[in-house]
Write a structure and sequence with these properties.
It contains eight helices and twelve strands. It is α/β, with parallel strands linked by helices and 229 residues long. The chain folds into two domains: 121 residues, Response regulator (Rossmann fold, 3-Layer(aba) Sandwich), CATH 3.40.50.2300; 92 residues, Arc Repressor Mutant, subunit A (Orthogonal Bundle), CATH 1.10.10. It starts with a strand and ends with a strand.
Length: 229
């Protein structure tokens, strides 16, 4: 099996070299770029299996790179892990809202980053663990084998993270889950994220589902559930 290709977009030379060294040591194929424009052009020309993206870049910023990737059908499925010195809650929420799969504030441990990379790659290349069945609720159909959500046969444009959240809740109709139970179920235990990030993801998912968004119900003071039959 060929090595997974990882693209790094990071303008700090020391950090870039450290990332390349650790990733190549683990058998990954790595390419590194110091600007958003260079990195995005390379991603479009030869899509990698995963992108490590800094936010504070010369010229085109990391948020704009992530936004461009997620708006392009050819690159929107490529997982993105943001690595940034901007570690405030608002920054994390903004990154995840754009479709990033993970957000790791600097400074970080290379071992933790490698673990996050393995988790993200497993998540995007394997069906949802223990939940491989197709789920149908009225006009809504969720196919985890293809990561496709459709309404009346028309695919809904949602991210892989959105799909996992929706499939998890729909697979436990009527059950109430806290935000952190949802995080553990769809991103793996130990994933660091704020409650606000889950709220933002749910709000965005409801909007994408249109008239079917009401199936995801807020349970005040607890979390969320998928409307029972």
């Amino acid at each position: 099996m060929s090595a997974v290709k990882i693209t790094i977009i990071e303008d700090e030379e020391d950090i870039s070299h450290l990332l390349v060294y650790n990733l190549e040591k683990q058998g990954y194929s790595v390419s590194a770029y110091e600007s958003g424009e260079q990195g995005l052009a390379a991603i479009r020309a030869d899509p990698p299996g995963l992108v490590l993206l800094d936010l504070m870049l010369p010229g085109m910023g990391g948020m704009d790179v992530c936004r461009s990737m997620k708006q392009d059908a050819a690159t929107q499925g490529i997982p993105v892990i943001i690595i940034s010195a901007k570690g405030e809650e608002s920054d994390i929420v903004a990154g995840l809202e754009l479709g990033a799969d993970d957000y790791l504030p600097k400074p970080f441990s290379p071992k933790i980053l490698l673990a996050r990379i393995r988790t993200v790659l497993r998540r995007v290349t394997q069906p949802i663990a223990g939940k491989s069945e197709v789920i149908e609720v009225d006009d809504l159909r969720l196919d985890p084998g293809k990561f496709i959500a459709s309404i009346k046969g028309v695919p809904v444009e949602i991210t892989a993270g959105d799909f996992r959240l929706l499939h998890f809740l729909a697979g436990h109709r009527g059950w109430v889950f806290t935000r952190y139970q949802i995080v553990d179920a769809i991103r793996g235990e130990g994933y660091v994220v704020t409650e606000r990030a889950i709220d933002v993801q749910v709000a965005g998912l409801r909007k994408k589902l249109g008239e079917h968004g009401h199936y995801i119900q807020t349970v005040r003071g607890v979390g969320y559930r998928f409307k029972d039959a």
